[in-house]
Amino acid sequence: MFSTTSGAVRAGARRVARYPAFIGIAAPSSNQCLFISTSTTKAASFRPATLGSQRVGQQRHGYATTTNPNPPLGKKNASNDVPSRIGLIGARGYTGQALIDLLNDHPFMDLRYVSSRELAGQKLDSYTKRDITYANLGVEEVAQLDKDGQVDCWVMALPNGVCKPYIEALNQVRAETGKKSLIVDLSADYRFDETWTYGLPELTKRSAIAQSKNISNPGCFATGAQLALAPLRGHCLDAHVFGVSGYSGAGTKPSPKNDLDNLRGGIIPYSLTGHIHEKEISHHLDIKTAFLPHVAEWFRGIHLTVSIDLNQQMTSRDIRQIYQDRYAGEKLVKVSGEAPLVRKISGQHGCELGAFSVDSTGKRVVICATIDNLNKGASTQCLQNMNLALGYDEFQGIPTV
Ligand SMILES: NC(=O)C1=CN([C@@H]2O[C@H](COP(=O)(O)OP(=O)(O)OC[C@H]3O[C@@H](n4cnc5c(N)ncnc54)[C@H](OP(=O)(O)O)[C@@H]3O)[C@@H](O)[C@H]2O)C=CC1
Ligand SMILES: CC(=O)N[C@@H](CCC(=O)OP(=O)(O)O)C(=O)O
């Protein structure tokens, strides 16, 4: 279904010529976050199921199923064949490095600037399409490059709470010049800001992402949890999400959560109430969710066990069918009967959902999800959003086969 980064065909040796700025995207009519409800959306047209033995769209169990109400835009959004110039702020970090690897294999993404205070002056070896040297780009330098029309898309891969001055400076350039370069922020800082588009393409209206200039990339745990919960939105009373992340989730700054001596031989609970992703899941799905995060000694990959109290009796088979219907045609979401294993998701670009274990009352289901926090939990999702908003195919440059 999805392949590892290392298995990808590397197209990076090619050099990208200098091209004029891409200006083909219309200004957004609305940046509001638009989630598609699976419980109320009726399938516009019937499509036979390819994933199960039953036909999709039939009401054989008393509650409506639907084919994917938010399918990939495909050719409708793939009109741009001009490269886009990218500036990456926070390029030394784990998510920044994962994104650089993806951009290196992308035919239209032309990385121009990588910012790091620690690595300033050093060559970026992992990018082979052009020679790039790390620079320490402060707010003024970024604003000047933007004003000079040197960058089409800025990606912010900074710790939470750091990027606001950059955004304010870019907004000032917009106000002064009318220029509108795209901004994608990987931090949690704008995930609750209604003037930004929350970019979880399988759940957010894709056409809204395509029209946006300010995209907040979802959190890693929050992405897996929302993909695991969304199809049951209309049947869910409340949910408990137990999550364990590899320690790359804690970033590169030394802390007890990425200290291998501290992690060895066990898992460590933290932020057991009030984690930002608890708020993020509850806010964007409108489901009362308790989130219980842990960190473990492996490097990358998240396991989530999601327990959902249902408002009616349901069977495991029917719930699984709802998920298969909801994610029909999605290249980065895999639904299966078995519980997915975290050791198998490392380096993969999608999210796997499985288990669908229903208790004896028929009113509680447990679903397991796995996701690579640095890929679909951050950089792969960022690239989906960049592709959509810059007018390329959403999955361009993402190994999905
Ligand atoms: N790691 C993960 O699994 C995920 C992370 N995220 C989010 O993505 C963002 C980046 O995470 P991650 O890559 O793990 O973080 P890292 O700690 O690995 O990297 C942070 C980057 O920001 C730079 N930086 C740190 N502090 C400052 C500062 N005050 N001013 C300017 N630059 C600074 C660092 O470079 P230098 O010090 O050299 O300047 C480094 O490049 C975070 O907001 C995180 O919450 C989202 C989903 C998943
Ligand atoms: C293990 C670990 O520490 N994981 C991080 C989640 C990484 C992430 O998605 O972060 P943001 O929401 O801050 O962008 C955490 O719990 O904060």
From TrEMBL:
Keywords: Amino-acid biosynthesis, Arginine biosynthesis, NADP, Oxidoreductase. PROSITE patterns: ARGC. The keyword Ribonucleoprotein does not apply. The active site is at residue 220. It comes from the Eukaryota. Residues 85-211 form the Semialdehyde dehydrogenase NAD-binding domain. Residues 55-79 are annotated as: Disordered. The keyword Cytoplasm does not apply. Pathway: Amino-acid biosynthesis; L-arginine biosynthesis; N(2)-acetyl-L-ornithine from L-glutamate: step 3/4. GO terms for molecular function: N-acetyl-gamma-glutamyl-phosphate reductase activity; NAD binding; NADP+ binding. GO terms for biological process: L-arginine biosynthetic process. Pfam families: Semialdhyde_dh (PF01118), Semialdhyde_dhC_1 (PF22698). HAMAP family: ArgC_type1. This is Arg-6. It comes from Emericellopsis atlantica.
